[in-house]
Amino acid sequence: MKKTEMVSELNRIQWKCHDMGCRVPISADDSEARDAMAEFCRLKVEDFYDIHGVLGSGQFAVVKKCCEKKSGLEFAAKFIKKRRSRSSRRGVVPEDIKREVSILRELRHPNIISLHEVYENDTDVTLILELVSGGELFDFLAHKESLSEDEATEFLKQILDGVSYLHCRRIAHFDLKPENIMLLENRAPKAHVKIIDFGLAQSIVDGVEFRHIFGTPEFVAPEIVNYEPLGVQADMWSIGVMTYILLSGASPFLGDTKEETLSNISAVEYKFDEEYFKQTSALAKNFIQRLLLKSPKERMNVEEAIHHPWIKPKDKHQLLHRKLSFINLENLKSFNARRKWRLSLRVVRLCNQLSRAHMPKAGTEQNHASCTTHMVDSDCASGDEDGLTMALDRLPRETRAVHMDACDEAGAQPSLNGAR
């Protein structure tokens, strides 16, 4: 199939998925569509796009701004390094890239980043993605002078709308956190939320049990910590954590160590400190409480969350109360600064560890510059997944997940358009 024919077919498939509605996915019998969606273009991406400066980077990916030569439209090109062998720890497993692409190709929603094209060569897969350049939502909010709950729920509605679209297709994101909630642009009259980074996303199949240890410790659900069957409800827990942080500028389960954080999550140990929640409405607290429940079955699902009276007030009294309740913006600004600082420290710490690990032994002739280059090219931008697994291994037996093979790292760098 020629490039132009493939792009046309992919667009037809995407619009077909959009037009048929979220409860009617593409039929499994549509083999022509499935074949088209499975193909990556083997032509040079540089022949069709002008590649510009770096927008963001992660452990195994770099995102650059690009411009389509034919249309003049701007996109983000995400260059993902492929893992070359089973024994290697460098690069992303090809099957994981294919899964991410397969999921992105199913999605067409205003609050979810969209995939335009996919290119592949021997070393990289390049995703041509919608350009999401407005920065993180939390950064945007932290620069405001004041923020009412009424204004905050407008952003949460957009997040819930995007998650609803995913969940009605039985797709779980599994990595909802502030870094992955972006704004399309920061100069628009009304901020437009985009959910990005589908590197951990999974299609949930009825009757097929899925267990895994992954994600960012601060935001993972108890069922991930305890290595229990996973489903879309894990995303609702993460939304509860983000809402708690948004309202208070405090993190509900964050401990001094990863082990303590995971223990707090497993025990669902959190509280609404008056210091942080003195301006918070009772309905907002109820919204969080109905999400931060240990049992996935007891948590609100996304449709229940959308219709919760805090998100969709039932009367004028509820609406007025929401307008008169305010976010602890001063503390949110402090939280956001600490979050950025922790991410920077994590990279520095990992680089130092790798520097020691790869430093030539005394008396050897190995070139120091090449050693440093190897350090930077390997794991200096490592994510949280290995740390999560090691932390779980040190938890008490009753809260520890069963032993697993070492997980592939999931990038924890601040991401733009989903840089791993």
Automatic annotation (TrEMBL):
E.C. numbers? 2.7.11.1
Q: Which UniProt keywords apply?
A: Apoptosis, ATP-binding, Kinase, Nucleotide-binding, Phosphoprotein, Serine/threonine-protein kinase, Transferase
Q: Which domain of life is it from?
A: Eukaryota
Q: What cofactor does this protein call for?
A: Mg(2+)
- Kindly indicate whether the keyword Protein biosynthesis belongs to this entry: no
Gene3D superfamilies recorded: Phosphorylase Kinase, domain 1, Transferase(Phosphotransferase) domain 1
Q: Mind telling me which GO cellular component terms the entry cites?
A: cytoplasm; nucleus
Pfam families xrefs: Pkinase
Q: Report any one BP term from Gene Ontology.
A: intracellular signal transduction
Q: Name one GO molecular function term.
A: protein serine/threonine kinase activity
Annotated ranges, domain Protein kinase? 49-311
- Do the record's keywords include Ligase? no
Q: Which PANTHER family match?
A: DEATH-ASSOCIATED PROTEIN KINASE DAPK-1, SERINE/THREONINE-PROTEIN KINASE 17
Give the protein family: Belongs to the protein kinase superfamily. CAMK Ser/Thr protein kinase family. DAP kinase subfamily.
Tell me the protein's name: non-specific serine/threonine protein kinase
